[in-house]
Amino acid sequence: MKLTTAPEPDGRIGAMLSVEGLTVTFPALGSRVIDDINFTIEKGKTIGLVGESGSGKSMTSLAIMGLLPEGAAVEGSVSYWGEQLLGNPDSAMRRLRGDRIAMIFQDPLSSLNPYFTVGFQIAEAYRTHRGGSRRQARGVAVEAMRQVRIPDAERRVDHYPHQFSGGMRQRVMIAMALVCQPDLIIADEPTTALDVTVQAQILTLMSDLQDSTGAGMLFITHDLAVVSDVADSIVVMQRGKTVEQGTAEAIFSWPESDYTRALLAATPRLDDIVDLPEPLRGTR
Amino acid sequence: MTLLPYLSKRFLASVITLLAVIFLTFAVFFWLTPDPAANICGQTCTPDQIHAIREQLGLNQPFLKQFWAFLAGIFAGRAYGAGATAVQCSAPCIGFSFQSGTNVLTTIISRLPVTISLAAGAAVLWLLVGISGGMISAVKKGTWWDRGAMMVSLGGISLPNYFVALVLQYLLVVKLKLLPFPTLVPFSENPSGWFKAYLMPWIVLALMYAATYARLIRANMLDTMGENFMRTARAKGLAPAPILFRHALRPSLTPVVSLFGVEFATLLGGALITETVFGLSGVGKLAYDAIQSNDQPVIMGVTLVAAFAVIIANLLVDLAYSVLDPRVRVASR
Amino acid sequence: MSFDDHTPLLRVQNLVKEFKQSARKQFRAVDDVGFDLSQRETLGVVGESGSGKSTTARMVARLIDPTSGSIEFQGEDVTTRTGAALRHFRGNVQVVFQDPYSSLNPRHTVEQIISAPLRYQGRKVSGGYRKAVKEAMDRVGLNPDHSARHPMQFSGGQAQRIGIARALAVEPKLVICDEAVSALDVSVQAQVLDLLRDLQREHDFSYIFVAHDLAVVRQIAHKVAVMSAGRLVEQGPRDAIFDNPQHEYTRTLLSAVPRINPEWESARKSRDEGNLTASSGN
User: Fold this and answer.
1) By C-alpha distance, which of C78, C75, C74, C76 is closest to C66?
2) What topology is assigned to B104-331 in CATH?
């Protein structure tokens, strides 16, 4: 069953996603969670958004999707193929979400509704934007599960989220995000909750899928090693501000800011040799 | 398949519970109530007559023999007394009312339609009002609607229902003359009359339950709406309606369904106060009258029927839970 | 302490933990695990989810009772100890958990949290508990004036330090760290690892460091035990495990760890060195 492709918008002006001067505050709390963030995402490319907790990286993704919590005041510009997203009414944003811009979240167990089958939830994303009968959508869901390399998809499409392992559940989330063939995928810490071997598989999968669909990706993570592998360009954030940004090679090979250097120094390496206290009563 | 052994265990437990309830009920009535024979006999009674009645009812037997006779009667029917004056009580026999001269079970069954009509109608009303009220409160949390609804529901729970019944009757029948005084007519004869007769009792009964359900639904939905999968639903571009009615309501309903099952079954044992206030001859009114006239077999019979209904409902509710919640229904990886 | 030079501080042998899965099936969470640990030594226990590493560590702490096997502490069998003897053992073995906000009682003050083990152990402290608490806070880098605050008022790294202070208040011989730094930001993580190493150096603590992050384990462990599906697939000295893994699973695990592009790393290092020599030349 072929996935129908959404028609490309014609008369494209500018980049696929362009974020300029994005600033998000919560006036009631007097806090500024994002302060003047700027970056551009092209199709086929990946921007890595790196920061520790409180850096505002997750908020950035919510701002783009129009999913900020109540009480948020947004300034700046977020344009998708030239169309301004900020200030868009929810009814207009709903058409883009899941269809042109899709999100993958960190914890697949809590991010999927335990009362519905995975097939239903994947098909739901498809039917919301493309319509079609239930049978058609089910076929689409099975195909999407095959695409993300879930074995025995025809049978497992009727299983519930708790019947899958962590890695398989994340594949379901990826399938759900890709089912309408979006231009942009926002992945918020997609592998943080997974085992390291599973993480490697999922990252490979995401890279392959990005190649085959040509989608652009915003990859949010705190893990420098992961982002070095995944991103073409990197934006380093600290407490809402951009500390440094550039190509991945530039950030890692000649980091300019002290904060980036501190992060790099603090990141444990697999081949570090660390001076440890000498054990007593001698061991091997 | 782990479901079958689980259910058979529950079934067995239900049977044991039922037996225990029968025993307990019998024991309580055996020890705590005054001599039923004297009651049946009346004011002008000689000790000989009382003794004769006691013989007939088997009241001179030891406790366990009486209990066994009672239990056996439930399955095989029994006869009170012997010879020509023997009274037959066909299976299942849960007692014979000598005051009214009728088989207790037959009497109860004749009163059930009224009780069921009352319970079912109230149930529909309270589910509709409670669930929609709770949902609206949850969605509009913190607004005047929410606060107002929760205050009204608090009133509904705390006001005694005989009070509400009387006030409602006074308002609607006497003052505003909107409804006639409730007189019971069978549905088949006069549907509109039937409906008018039940309307106030339905409202009175539903008010108390609707309040509880509204609060429960509100709490469950607020919990559910904070879950991560709600965020996923929004990120998929779903419209507010499917997000609310599909993703938020479904998880919130499950605990409510199980509560409903048991509460509805409890009502089948008779809504005593409501029926009495409105003069409906249901099982509740039957029990009330029996208590007034100390007609023991009837009181005991109603107790048993009510307990039976709740035990069955409990079993069904457990079954329902295993169907409703996929995490219970299918073992996880 | 009168055990000879060849008795390790901790000796675990053939440790097994089974959980009842259903009426007939048992589930082996830990299957025949054994290792030694000396004083002032850290054993890193690594593995993925379901490997049994946390269960093993908790058995050593006697938070979970083993199904079979033996745990010898300072030459004595503590596997089935109960009552006062168990309490005595607990005074020697403490645990630091992953999430301080849920493992420390949020309604207690820092003072209550840190002094609790002292009270339960019935230790007499010269200068009183308050002094001991302030000393412990000082040792882990917390401001002693904050002893009346509650865990929620601290940042993640600081809250974890409260947990560490509580663990070392009774001056245990062995501290079990169950994913103790996994929930921390990377910069804070590095500081807490520094702290743990310093404390080991000063107080001769031994650690069992359970973690899923291999790179972190390399920062603190002298020896490493690799677990998978309840079994110990490989164990050995740190460098041997990381640089020359024998078991296929260990190799798979190590190869899956994401690495920063080594070309970029060396480019950065040489520029830094170049800058250093350039500036020192001025």
Assistant:
1) C78
2) MetI-like fold (1.10.3720)
